[in-house]
Design goal:
The complex is a heterodimer of chains A (117) and B (421). Chain A is an alpha+beta fold. Chain A has a four-stranded antiparallel sheet, covered by helices on one side. In chain A, strands 3-4 form a two-stranded antiparallel ribbon. Chain A is flat and about 45 Å long. Chain A starts with a strand and ends in a 6-residue tail after the last strand. The longest helix of chain B is centred in the N-terminal third of the chain and has 27 residues. The relative contact order of chain B is 0.06. Chains A and B meet through helix 2 and helix 3 of A and helix 1, helix 5 and helix 10 of B.
Chain lengths: 117, 421
């Protein structure tokens, strides 16, 4: 069963770190991902650049609407993700608890599947 | 307060995640696989006793490792202090001090520890049954009762298998190390065989309980990916992963709501898992790029890919399937491959051609007692309108089937012919 672990960071948290602290946090996440890979648990993972560089798009009645970040209405932003393959919800929980970012952000865990059942 | 069952489930999950890392790290510092496995189990027992009362510790992996190390130190202290035991004791204590009880500190070694564990649990000195049981226990973190339920054998049988396997490894002084390059080929083959047996037990479920099936398949895929990290240039590893992903893609579609099998021909293909198919096809392409198109796992994956690529059953490329089975029969001859080749011939050229292709198999000693042979014969005879003969074949197949649901399915097909529908 595949689960998506999304890292929900408080907005602005990254800018509060010194460059060294930022690199250290990033390295810890890389090590965490490398460990998952060696254990055969990792399907994919990526870190994401700040949402201020991102944008949101919607199409309504043929009209394209683009909103540039930052998305100030939200308190959190998606900082990165790990797609893992584990046997159960409890195992996904155990992996999420190991994630270093659980210490400074929130890990949202969702099982993959169709969106209609 | 969370219920006891909740805590138990959490402990079991932690154990499945932590067991390989724990046993690997202990086996390296103790230089004794059997002792490592024993003290790791002791730590699990301690967790089952303590955590429901005191709660799950913040870093459960570190707790388990510290507990297991303490236990190892106790055992080594109480044993006669021969020089070797003394050395081990110093080693494990200095390890405990350096790592500060945090297994993640040793992450560089950890990948190799896992591979060492796979290679020792899948060692060719062990019987196939023992390899499967030991692999599920030390790499899958399954308990003896869970393994026993998966294979529908008494717990004592599995416990015996594991004790004997550990004894064999100790008697033969099998070291906890990666195989030397010269032995890597056969050792890898032995490990891949175990992985595929575990997957098949989950997928085909000749016995055992339903809830175990996805668990075994997930375990097998995980092990396959770990082996891939060592042998990324070996096409058969990618072939096996492709085969497992492609077969796993049909999980949801292959049984109905009550757990009865649904034939490939009538499965709802929109329920096949697109993610599994994508990963499977990518792994197959990788295997072929590496020049492995004629490996047995790669060929089987290529066969599964023929089905995955067909949007409807009618669009299946049977000519390619016959050609792939012919290749497979030449590199890995087996009556089961011949049986499947005959089915493909029937699809390409009609049921009579299929029956002709089956004719030589009836005398094959390995096919005696194999329910799929009469099952396939019944199917072809039914399509030729020879209903009485078809019914007799289905009844014979039902009598030979090991799985209750398959037996029920075959009896229904026989009964359907009796009613004349």
């Amino acid at each position: 069963m595949a689960y998506l672990l999304t890292v929900l960071e408080p907005r602005g948290q990254r800018s509060e770190r010194t460059p060294e602290q930022g690199r250290e946090a990033y390295q810890r996440m890389l090590d965490f991902g490398a460990g998952l890979h060696k254990r055969g648990l990792l399907v994919a993972s990526e870190a994401l650049r700040s949402e201020s560089e991102g944008f949101r798009l919607s199409m309504r009645d043929g009209e394209r609407r683009v909103v540039d970040g930052p998305f100030t209405e939200a308190r959190e932003m998606i900082g990165g993700f790990f797609l893992i393959d584990v046997g159960s919800r409890e195992e996904a929980l155990a992996i999420a608890a190991e994630c270093p970012a659980a210490q400074w952000a929130t890990i949202e865990v969702r099982e993959t599947g169709t969106c209609y059942e | 307060m969370p219920g006891t069952n909740d805590i138990r489930r959490r402990i079991e999950a932690v154990w499945r995640i932590e067991a390989p890392r724990l046993i690997g790290s202990l086996a390296r510092s103790l230089r004794d696989f059997g002792l490592a496995e024993e003290v790791a189990q002791d730590a699990l027992v301690a967790a089952l006793e303590t955590w429901p009362l005191k709660g799950v510790p913040e870093r459960p992996g570190a707790w388990l490792l510290t507990t297991a190390r303490r236990r190892a130190i106790d055992i080594l202290r109480h044993a006669t202090l021969t020089t070797r035991k003394h050395e081990l004791l110093e080693h494990v204590m200095s390890d405990a001090l350096q790592a500060g009880g945090d297994p993640t500190h040793a992450d560089d070694e950890f990948g190799d520890d896992l591979l060492r564990l796979i290679f020792i649990a899948c060692h060719p000195v062990l019987s196939t049954d023992a390899r499967v049981a030991l692999t599920l226990r030390v790499l899958g973190g399954l308990t003896t009762p869970e393994i026993a339920r998966a294979f529908l054998v008494p717990e004592a049988t599995i416990a015996q298998r594991i004790v004997r396997a550990k004894k064999t490894l100790a008697d033969k002084q099998v070291p906890f190390e990666l195989p030397p390059t010269a032995e890597l080929g056969p050792r890898l083959a032995s490990a891949l065989e175990v992985v595929y047996l575990i997957f098949n037990e989950g997928y085909a479920a000749t016995s055992g309980e339903d809830w175990m099936r996805p668990l075994l398949c997930a375990q097998a895929l995980r092990l396959g990916r770990t082996i891939m990290s060592l042998a990324a240039a070996e096409p058969e590893v990618h072939g096996l992963i492709a085969l497992m992903e492609l077969q796993a893609s049909r999980f949801a579609a292959r049984v109905d709501g009550t757990g009865r099998p649904i034939l490939l021909a009538v499965q709802d293909r929109s329920r096949w898992d697109a993610g599994c198919i994508r990963r499977g096809l990518a792994a197959l392409a990788r295997a072929e790029e590496l020049g492995g198109a004629d490996g047995p796992y790669v060929l089987q994956a290529a066969l599964a890919a023929c089905h995955a690529r067909a949007e409807q059953y009618e669009a299946t490329d049977w000519a390619r399937i016959v050609a792939l089975y012919t290749r497979l029969a030449s590199v890995a001859p087996s009556p089961v491959v011949e049986l499947n080749r005959a089915v493909a011939v029937a699809m390409r050229d009609g049921p009579q051609a299929g029956l002709d292709a089956l004719a030589t198999l009836a005398d094959e000693p390995k096919m005696v007692g194999y329910h799929l042979l009469p099952g396939v014969r019944g199917d072809l005879l039914e399509r030729l309108g020879r209903l009485d003969e078809a019914r007799a074949e289905f009844e014979q197949a039902a009598a030979l089937a090991g799985n209750a649901r398959e037996r029920e399915f075959l009896l229904e097909r026989a009964a359907g012919l009796r009613r004349g529908d």
